[in-house]
Write a structure and sequence with these properties.
alpha/beta, Aspartate Aminotransferase, domain 2, Aspartate Aminotransferase, domain 1, 3 domains, seven-stranded mixed beta sheet, four-stranded antiparallel beta sheet, pyridoxal phosphate binding, lyase, pyridoxal phosphate, decarboxylase, tyrosine decarboxylase activity
Length: about 525
C-alpha cells in the first residue's frame, strides 16, 4: 500500500512514516534555531498563513457536510506512529495542508450555518483575534501580582458583563459580590458546590459530609451530578426531582419543598440547589424566585443558577423577567462562548459572597507569589476563585468583544437568532403533520412529526421521529439537528445560533425535514397497505 501523501521523505528516499533514525538526529540545536522559536518576522510570516487559512475556511464552510461520515480510527490510520525527530522543510505549511486535507474533513463543523444540533459555540472575528492576542501575550494571571492588569481587567469585565445581562447588583464587585471568568459552566458549578459544602461543614462539622444532600431536576445538566460526585456528595444523596410537560418541564417548588422536608425528617442536611435558566433538552426555565424561597426555609440552602446557554439572552431587555427573579441566588454562571461571540472557552461566574469561594478554594500564599505593591491592599487573587492555579487571560477577548460590538451589537446578534427560531416554529405549526412539543422561549425549537393514527402509540411515534432525524441529517448539504427524549417523548431539536446562520439556511433546513417526512410517510402508508 502506498504511504499517505503527508508522510515525510528523507534525503529523497522512501517515506518513513514520520520517523527519522537516531543517526540523523544527534545534532544539538544551534542558538540561532532557538532564537527563531519566537522570532518576530517568522511569527508574522506564519501568522499570515494562519489568518488566510481561517478566512478561507469560513469562506468555504458551506461546502463541508456539517457532520462527517467517518468511522473510529479513520485519522489515526493516516497519521505517523511517531512524531518527527526533525521538522520537514516548510513544516508549518505542510501541517496546514494536513489540517485542510485530513483533519477538517473529519470534524463536526460547529461554525457551519447549517449546524442546529447543539447550542452554539459562537465565533466572531474579534473573539477569534482576542484569543490569538491572549495566546500571544501568554500571561498567567493566577494572582494580582502575577499580572496586575489581567486581574483588574477581569474584574472590570465581569461587572460590565453583569450589568449588560441585568444581573442583581449584589452579584457584582460594585455591589459587594464579584465574578470571575472560567472555562466552562462545569467548573463554575463545581466551585460553587465546594464553597457551599465547606461553608455548611464549618457549621455542622466535617464528619457530617455523608449527610449532605443536593437537589436538581431531571432536566438539569449532568455536569451537576458529576460535580456533586467530585465534591464528595454520596450518589444516593443527589435528588433528581421529576418534571412534567404540563409544567413546561420546569422544577416544581412544591416538589422541591417535599424532597427537602423528607430529608430533614430523615436527619439529613439539605445543602445545594442547582436551578436552570434554559435547560439543555428544551430550554425550560425554573421558577428561581419561588425555589429560593423554598431553599431559605431549609437552613439557607445555597442556590446556584446554571444559565450556560440562555444567560446570553439576558442581554436583551425583553428577557429581563427571567433574571429579575434571581435577587436571592448565591451564584450564577453563563457561557459567553455559547451565544455572545466570545469563542471557546469562556464561562462567567458571579457570587454574592466571594469570601465563601476563597475560604474553600484559597491556597496559602507562597513567598514567591507575594508582591510588595499588593501589601496592605485588598487585591483579588483569582487562583482562589477556581479549581486551577494556572489560568488563561480570557478577560482580554471578552473586553475586546464588548468594546468592538457593544451591548447593542450583542443584543442584535441574539435577537436575530430568536427571530429565525420564531420563523422556524411558525413553519412547523403551519404543517399539520408536525407539532411543537415544548414552548419556544429562546432560539431552540423542539418539534416532531405526528404519528399517523393507524400506527398508534408513543413508541411508534418515537421510532418515526428517530428515522426522520436520521434521514434529515444524512441529506446532502442538509441540516444537522439533534434529538431529546423528555417525558417519554422523542423530539427533534433545532437550535439556531451559529454566527453565520441566515434565514435562508433555516428555510432550507425546514424544506429538507418536510421532504424527508413526506418520503417516510409515503413508505409507511405503503407498508400499511401491503400489510392488510
Amino acid at each position: 500500500m502506498a504511504p499517505p501523501s503527508h508522510c515525510h521523505t528523507i534525503n529523497g528516499g522512501a517515506p518513513r512514516n514520520g520517523a527519522i533514525s537516531a543517526v540523523e538526529t544527534t545534532s544539538t540545536p544551534e542558538a540561532s534555531d532557538t532564537a527563531r522559536l519566537l522570532d518576530a518576522d517568522e511569527f508574522r510570516r506564519l501568522g499570515h498563513q494562519v489568518v488566510d487559512f481561517i478566512a478561507d475556511y469560513y469562506a468555504g464552510l458551506g461546502d463541508y457536510p456539517v457532520h462527517p461520515s467517518v468511522t473510529p480510527g479513520f485519522l489515526r490510520r493516516q497519521l505517523p506512529v511517531d512524531a518527527p525527530s526533525r521538522p520537514e522543510p516548510e513544516a508549518f505549511a505542510a501541517a496546514l495542508r494536513d489540517v485542510r486535507d485530513l483533519i477538517l474533513p473529519g470534524v463536526t463543523h460547529w461554525q457551519s450555518p447549517r449546524h442546529f444540533a447543539h447550542f452554539p459555540a459562537s465565533s466572531s472575528t474579534v473573539g477569534a483575534l482576542g484569543e490569538a492576542l491572549a495566546a500571544g501575550i501568554n500571561v498567567v494571571p493566577f494572582t494580582w501580582a502575577a499580572s496586575p492588569a489581567a486581574t483588574e481587567l477581569e474584574m472590570v469585565v465581569v461587572d460590565w458583563l453583569g450589568r449588560a445581562l441585568h444581573l442583581p447588583e449584589r452579584l457584582l464587585f460594585a455591589g459587594g459580590g464579584g465574578g470571575t471568568i472560567l472555562g466552562t459552566s462545569c467548573e463554575a458549578i463545581l466551585c460553587a458546590l465546594v464553597a457551599a459544602r465547606d461553608r455548611k461543614l464549618a457549621e455542622i462539622g466535617a464528619r457530617r459530609i455523608g449527610d449532605l444532600v443536593v437537589y436538581c431536576s431531571d432536566q438539569t445538566h449532568f455536569a451537576f451530578r458529576k460535580a456533586a460526585r467530585i465534591a464528595g456528595i454520596l450518589r444516593e444523596h443527589c435528588r433528581e426531582i421529576p418534571t412534567y410537560r404540563d409544567d413546561t418541564f420546569a422544577l416544581s417548588p412544591s416538589a422541591l419543598h417535599a424532597a427537602m422536608q423528607a430529608d430533614v425528617e430523615a436527619g439529613l442536611v439539605p445543602l445545594f440547589l442547582c436551578a436552570t435558566v434554559g435547560t439543555t433538552q428544551t430550554t425550560a426555565v425554573d421558577p428561581v424566585r419561588e425555589l429560593c424561597a423554598v431553599a431559605a426555609r431549609h437552613g439557607g440552602v445555597w442556590v446556584h443558577v446554571d444559565a450556560a446557554y440562555a444567560g446570553s439572552a439576558l442581554v436583551c431587555p425583553e428577557f429581563r423577567d427571567v433574571i429579575a427573579i434571581a435577587e436571592a441566588v448565591d451564584s450564577l454562571s453563563m457561557n459567553a462562548h455559547k451565544w455572545l461571540l466570545a469563542n471557546n472557552d469562556c464561562c462567567a461566574m458571579w457570587v454574592a459572597a466571594p469570601s465563601a469561594l476563597v475560604a474553600a478554594l484559597g491556597t496559602e500564599q507562597e513567598y514567591i507569589l507575594k508582591d510588595a505593591a499588593a501589601e496592605g491592599h485588598d487585591v483579588v487573587d483569582y487562583k482562589d476563585w477556581g479549581t486551577t492555579l494556572t489560568r488563561r487571560f480570557r478577560a482580554l477577548k471578552v473586553w475586546l468583544v464588548l468594546r468592538c460590538y457593544g451591548v447593542e451589537g450583542l443584543r442584535s446578534h441574539v435577537r436575530s437568532h430568536v427571530a429565525m427560531a420564531a420563523a422556524f416554529e411558525a413553519m412547523v405549526r403551519d404543517d399539520a403533520r408536525f407539532e411543537v412539543v415544548a414552548p419556544r422561549r429562546f432560539a431552540l425549537v423542539c418539534f416532531r412529526l405526528r404519528s399517523p393514527e393507524r400506527l398508534g402509540g408513543e413508541k411508534a411515534a418515537n421510532e418515526l421521529n428517530r428515522r426522520l432525524l436520521e434521514e434529515a441529517n444524512a441529506a446532502s448539504s442538509g441540516p444537522y439537528m439533534s434529538s431529546a427524549m423528555v417525558g417519554g417523548v422523542y423530539m427533534l431539536r433545532c437550535a439556531i445560533g451559529s454566527t453565520l446562520t441566515e434565514e435562508r439556511h433555516v428555510r432550507e433546513a425546514w424544506k429538507v425535514v418536510q421532504e424527508r417526512a413526506t418520503s417516510i410517510l409515503v413508505n409507511v402508508a405503503n407498508w400499511v397497505q401491503t400489510s392488510r
